[in-house]
Amino acid sequence: MDSWLFLLAVPFLAILTEGLYRKLIARMQNRVGPPIAQPLYDLLKLWGKKPLRKENDPFFKAAPVLYFLSHFALFLFVPLSIVSFSYDFILLIYLTILGSAFFILAGVSSDSPYSVIASMREMILMVVYEITLAIILVTVFMASGALSLAGLDVSFGFATLPLAALCLLAVGMVEIHVTPFDTASAKAEILSGVEVEYPGKKMFFMKSTSYLKKLFYSLLWPTLFVGTGNWLLFGLGAFGTFFVFTFSQATTPRYRVDQAFDRLLIVMVIALFEFIRVSWGFVWVL
Amino acid sequence: MKRLITIAGIDEGKGVRLVYFYDSNGKVTTTDTRLPYNGSTESISPDYPSAEFYEREIHDFFGITFTGCPNINKRLFKAEGDKKKPFLGARK
Amino acid sequence: MSDYLVPFGPQHPAIKEPISLRLKLSGSTVEGVDAQLGYIHRGVEKIFERENINNALYLAERICGICSYAHASAYTRAMESMMHIRAPPRVQYLRTMFAELERLHSHLLWAGFMCHEIGFETLFQLFWREREQILDVFERYTGNRVHHSYNKLGTVRYDIEDEDYIREQVHSILPTVKSLRSEIKGNGVVAARFKKVGPVTHKQAIEYCLVGPPARACGVKNDIRKLDPYEAYGKTKFKQPIYKSGDSYARTMVRLDEIFESVKIIDQCLRDMPATKVPKHSLKALPQGEGYGRVEAPRGENFHYYIVKDSKITRAKIRPPTLAVFPALETMMLGAHVGDVPVIVASIDPCIGCMERITVTKGRRTETLTEQEFRRKYCG
User: Fold this and answer.
1) Which runs of consecutive H residues, i.e. helices, occur in C27-157?
2) Of C227, C326, C380, the CB nearest to B85
């Protein structure tokens, strides 16, 4: 019962994550940065804005909410298994793909050519990173022998599966749109692409989903590779992942879409190698 | 080879004077041509591709035609369909 | 045959000022470029007519914000050559120093902008932080950060008092810029985004008569400060950085290297300036004249040509450096990926404000006109 209460904490944790992210980047850039509660103020402001024109497209109206719900649902599995059953990690893969599909739908149903370009870029990259994510999840479950996230007994999994751990960091970077892989929502090139046409309440959902994603991938990594046994270590793992994402955003430029695709293909090959290694039983035990 | 710096058009009341500025090894040399209004002359863009922009500008503003200049009738600085020649007339 | 025409501009976050480039794409490769200019054409050359030569100096400065001193320098060079007057040595050194300070601020601005294009926000912030040191110098000595109004015909407006301050501020940027330069040089993603993007061969550079850093990135030595020295450049020692590859990476490195050369020139000016008095400014007259002046602006060769009658300008022709580089833009973009287009446009350091020359001022009244109104009112 109390694990359901975690869902209430998720929005605040997401806002905290985003606030810390912005503050940390600002400090790295020799700036003061916004207050940590800034994302909350942004969201409150967005909720109150009226749309500027008549929107007729049902997909345009529905996509942001669906995007938000599919990502919020992910927190039912990670880090506390509020809902669990055998092979529930496959549902996890499904939900992430569904979330990205709603993102693409949001871009395609906007009227702006920039949104369409952004969706196209996301589609191109999705081919690689979603498969990689699936491979990594299956590898982890194969290595641990568990069938569901509730029963996942991983201790220092990043030492047993180092390559998979690194690949998950790369995949996380693409998912949460940080450089070097944020081609699909490049602020300078395509005006943040998919989000550009969404006013007020719909933008509220788009933005809050992007905050949720940051939180989710910061928590997914320690769930799979540190283990939920020791909460202190888990917290350190979460913070470490978050820091890697922030540091990457601050210190790298952005790849062009075809370059990003090539680099992610290499990541996929590495994940595949890890998968083969585990499936043939070459797992070294800590 | 000389480097083309620019081509300047000057309204002299009786016609248009074109001054071509070249740079040969650091020294600026000029060539003058005088043409009647709405006159035409040969384009130097086969030798100097960048002359296309200067010639189009002079065509837009002075009405001189440069034969052989690519895209001469495509407006560079003015909107489509604008027939006025801002550099001629009123101001002397 | 191209598949479709994608508009790049006139409003786009990747370009600072409005230009319209219609890209003919085949798949995602650029096959042709259709340029349409004139979005901020202000009729500058027309406004120069009927201006007194002393007043027109202020107009020349305002052709552009970032290279305002370059335009003022070209104007004074043209006028002084027509009047056959030579500024005294201290004034020449002061003008050289300010021109180099402007080169510093322009290159730092551009470096930040270039990093912003590829998403490297941190370097963008850090470059602009260093630029603030230079703007502090400007503000202290001229009262303004960008439009300095420092030149006058035959002299400069103020003499400088505290040379150590300038030296300190300028040297304070060196360590950071050095480390930022090595970051750009060594970063793999930057190399992927800049190398082999928008290439121009040496032969094309000469054919298209390129000026400034884009030409120096192809191996063409065309620095006006060396070819046709003016002010105190003949007495200062500095190198012109030349790279051979002609791509966006080479253009970036040329400008970054020029930052260090500019600092050397400023040091030499501060050291060699004779301690004489700067003449007070007075109005000048010129009954008749026709002449030109050219300077090496941060973006290349800035060329001004004037015909003067009765101390009034009757014709002004201004050829800013971006206009010389612009025709080569299509060559640079042929065969490029569409995602490279912002990088290529940014790498030539476009200053569209210089390139097009509406706010028409008549006496003391200012009026802001749409293009229709301007044409109706002022074009014969």
Assistant:
1) 44-48, 56-61, 68-83, 89-117, 121-142
2) C380
